[in-house]
Design a protein that fits this description.
The structure is a homodimer. Chain A is an alpha/beta fold. Chain A is built from 15 helices and 13 strands.
Amino acid sequence: MSKQILVNAFNMNCIGHQSSGLWRHPDDRSREYTSLKHWLDLARTMERGLLDGVFLADVAGVYDVYAGSPDAAIRSAAQFPANDPFCLVTGMAAVTQHLGFGITGSIPYEPPYAFARRISTLDHLTNGRVAWNIVTGYLDSAARGIGRAKQIAHDTRYDIAADYMAVMYKLWEGSWEDDAVIEDRRRGIMTDPTKVHRITHQGPYFQLDAIHLCEPSIQRTPVLFQAGTSPKGQQFAAAHAECVFIAAPDVERAAGVVASLRRQTVAAGRTAADVKIFQLACMIVDDTDAAANAKMRDLQRYGLSEGALALMSGWSGADLSKLDIDARAENVTSEAIQSALKGLGARSVREWVDFLVLGGASPLFVGSPSTIVDQMQRWVIDADIDGFNVAYTLLPASVEEFVDRIVPELQNRGIYKTAYSEGSLRRKVFGRGDRLVAPHPAAAYRMSL
Amino acid sequence: MSKQILVNAFNMNCIGHQSSGLWRHPDDRSREYTSLKHWLDLARTMERGLLDGVFLADVAGVYDVYAGSPDAAIRSAAQFPANDPFCLVTGMAAVTQHLGFGITGSIPYEPPYAFARRISTLDHLTNGRVAWNIVTGYLDSAARGIGRAKQIAHDTRYDIAADYMAVMYKLWEGSWEDDAVIEDRRRGIMTDPTKVHRITHQGPYFQLDAIHLCEPSIQRTPVLFQAGTSPKGQQFAAAHAECVFIAAPDVERAAGVVASLRRQTVAAGRTAADVKIFQLACMIVDDTDAAANAKMRDLQRYGLSEGALALMSGWSGADLSKLDIDARAENVTSEAIQSALKGLGARSVREWVDFLVLGGASPLFVGSPSTIVDQMQRWVIDADIDGFNVAYTLLPASVEEFVDRIVPELQNRGIYKTAYSEGSLRRKVFGRGDRLVAPHPAAAYRMSL
């Protein structure tokens, strides 16, 4: 059997997510993000298409690097407003059986004891379908939301994250032994107290002395997602992540990142296949390549450049409000931007922005189902990735088109499942057990019996 | 029309909740609290009975005052394990249209910026059905979960809570003007930035400089629940609460608490009817009073005294492990406990514990539907309460019996709705608008236009 391509829907509890201004398109309903029905319908569609999961991004702040102001993001609805992703999970779980939930939780904003409980609760209620996308925070505006003047320095954030992970592993893996719950009605013992352990942690950033409040869930530690691509971020991913989300602009650069990640994973004592790598992609499909290209041009008409640049300014940390939108590629002075333009084959800033409004800084796969699946296969083979986080242009249309047009083509080629396998998300994605095992560091925190 | 009695189901994301050891009863399925289906079925039953809401209690720690150890609570499953209540909401909302959700959120454990967002998100996704039960924290074990050695002193906790409320009101009421979202497709403006305001707060306990991440939800500020009965707690309730949850042992003491609360509410500039008061109650119903009494005795056989006393020790702060279970009432040395015994008419400690295992420190209404509704009416009239938080002995049996046997009797007497009214929870409960109005302090934080 050929390698099966993994697919998550890339989404966020907001309007438009990666595709700035597309809420102006008559077919877009992402504005209905405040309606539970909107999410239930999406979940049903995703499960109909046998998607592995929905990846729920999150940003706990507003994009205000662009022109030093949040106004562009507010006007264009560039990931703003941004509602809580965790609140969506049990609603979507109520109408699905298999769909996974990759939920972004930002370490600076989530006190560890309560966060561990929330994840365990969701792992219980979803029957082990939860993944946590570990974020260390990047917007200063988010830091101000918790009373800090700025974000903590990048590298320090990973030290904090390492300390946080130790607390999480202790709570999830070490506080309850597997057979602690005995439900002995006659003796009146639900849980054997000798098998429930107080966790003490005196780390550099977190201190705690408490019993985990939740009995063991199916996965215990949720499937761990991570998206850092800086050297420190890659090192963290190599040590902890089971799934890594990358957003390379082209297949060559993806291959480089993937090779580096797999090398570091092996150096960390794990095997290269212990990490599944998902590449960001945005797909525009139609009957023919020509029709898909026409659809792309139609979609681009609705984009809002200030929204796209507000997002890009937040991601890069560089204020792009001064950028001359009419400049040709060769006249752009910033090396980083020139490289970004080149990666997407944009001949001018305007052409680049026209790409950005469709899926953000995402490679665009445009064409017939056959053309798109060709591209997907090329990325999987040439970059050694395991699957895709698929951004939308229009909601729910993009998800429906993926499910109805691209999934069948993937299935015809034998590179996509035709039914879900049973069990937890970890079991489905890795074809192994429900729980993390050595040499993953989580396993070291398990109580030996 | 007679005064309509309000009813919430009193519940918690745990086993047995208030009724220690009843998980041993063959008809109890509260052990299934980790299953989403369990909660969906409960929500459907509650809505079938036109309940105003489900009140989701929470305790972010373990009861370890009893014998200075968590072992009794762990063994008996006394509110332990205790999963996150927020995770239940959208699942239950997905299968209901009207049921309200009173969710306990503990100020020391919920960073304000993220908490405000979570509540707003839920208010959106439930179409304005959210209430927040404001808790200031009481278990030292919970404090240790966030790295503190002990709980903060009682009175200081209310100062912290007042500061926290100011942050909440600013975010919920002051950050977005009503007409900020304009969704102007032609000009590409989703939200008018001049109508979205940065909140700055430099309080004694909380500091923040941020825009609320959520557009206005139906209720903005959720319906505010509170349960403090200390002098400081009553003062806080009089200023902020819209609904107050009391747990008086008898109708006379309830009347005293209610009169005091209403008096203070008026002193705070509000009207007495601005606060709806819910009394804790536990009901055991059967065809006849005799059959209900027999049912009660059957249920009591399954109770676990160490669980009941572990809970009571946590609530009171007094270690009750030394209490002689066989002592007669007149021989009990502690005045507080003697008073508790008297309140419930218990002639011995054992009799008291036999009451405690059914609904915790709750008045027990035992009898035919007619007898129980007589008692409910007596409490409503004599104590001037507005309704009940109804604890269960068996889940889902207690809820089903309430819905199928007590609700019809209430309806026959014209003291309970026969259909839900439309609109938000606040509109349903108060028969007024969706939002808080002056003189409630929240209204003062609203942007004047």
